[in-house]
Amino acid sequence: MTDPMTERLVRFQRPGALPYLIGADEARLAALFGLDADAYRALLDAFDQQTRQAAETLLARPGLADAVDRLPLRPEGSRDAFHVVALGESTTADRLSWFEILRRLVALRRPGDAVRFTNLAIAGSTTTQALTQLPALGFQRPDLVLCMIGANDAQHLAPDAPTLVSAAETERNLAMLHDLARQRGAVRWVWLTPSPFDEPRAAAYPHFRRAGITWAGKDVDAIADHLLGRPEPTVDTRLAVREDHHFLDDGVHLSIDGQREIAEAVVRALAGAA
């Protein structure tokens, strides 16, 4: 049986998204976690089963199946498959993330459609670090980018310290991500706001306390409000994540319940814009 720490690491760390490990086989990736290939695959299969169950729960909600059917995910021109790519940090890198649930929703409802999903999210990434992924993004030639980034910019490394990335720098980086990606090819771009935090839970979390890391909801709100003011479509995840059970014990990362709510919000927003 895999210990809880290793399971959490595998859940949130996606080394195969790193530029120098793209294409690495499972045996090599498993070794990074101290696992053999069979144990690593068993964990991935367990996560996959959870996302399937989350998708099935969503499909039972009124109108959700029809919304998945309406998602604008059909290739144009000579493209043989529609390609959806996610950029982000741990909330998206999560093996139980909204993006993985979205992948499963489309597979369940539209198995005959040629839709590919590639998750390039990297846990811990700031908007500054995300800029280094632009070459990999260009290589992927996506039709649609779903980008959820900014939560790590809002970290405070001490209670009275400024945010890890300043507000002005975050806004500059977000604009560069979008504009430079568009220069590399025609791509539809949709933002997701960083999900909210449970501040009391995050403040009490022992690992954050030892590291001196804190977050403030107002900083995330400022990033969200900036994204909502941009011309590209933005899904406001703050409207979906509201309950205690939507968060893990650290108050920052989401439970699969919270991830499921974001997946629903994304589907309804994309279907409504189709």
What does this structure look like?
By secondary structure, the protein is an alpha/beta fold. Helix 3 crosses helix 6. The mean pLDDT is 93. Helix 9 links the parallel strand 3 and strand 4. The protein contains 13 helices and five strands. A five-stranded parallel sheet has the order 2-1-3-4-5, with helices on both faces.
Could you provide a short overview of the structure?
With 274 residues, this protein is α/β, with parallel strands linked by helices.
Keywords:
13 helices; 48% helix; alpha/beta; 9% strand; 274 residues; five-stranded parallel beta sheet
Secondary structure topology:
Elements: H1 4-12, H2 26-32, H3 37-59, H4 64-70, E1 82-88, H5 90-93, H6 98-109, E2 115-119, H7 127-130, H8 134-140, E3 144-148, H9 167-183, E4 188-192, H10 199-204, H11 206-211, H12 217-228, E5 234-235, H13 256-273
Parallel strand pairs: 1-2, 1-3, 3-4, 4-5
Helix pairs in contact: 2-3, 3-6, 3-13, 4-13, 6-13
Tally the helices.
13
Oligomer: single chain
The strands making up the biggest β-sheet line up spatially as: 2-1-3-4-5
What letter string, H or E per element, gives the SSE order? HHHHEHHEHHEHEHHHEH
Cα separation of the termini: 45 Å
Strand content: 5-15%
Overall pLDDT confidence: 93
Which radius of gyration do the C-alpha atoms yield? 18 Å
* Structural class designation: alpha/beta
Low-pLDDT segments, ≥5 res: none
Give the tally of β-strands.
5
Largest sheet: 5 strands, parallel
Q: Give helix % range.
A: 40-55%
Shape: globular
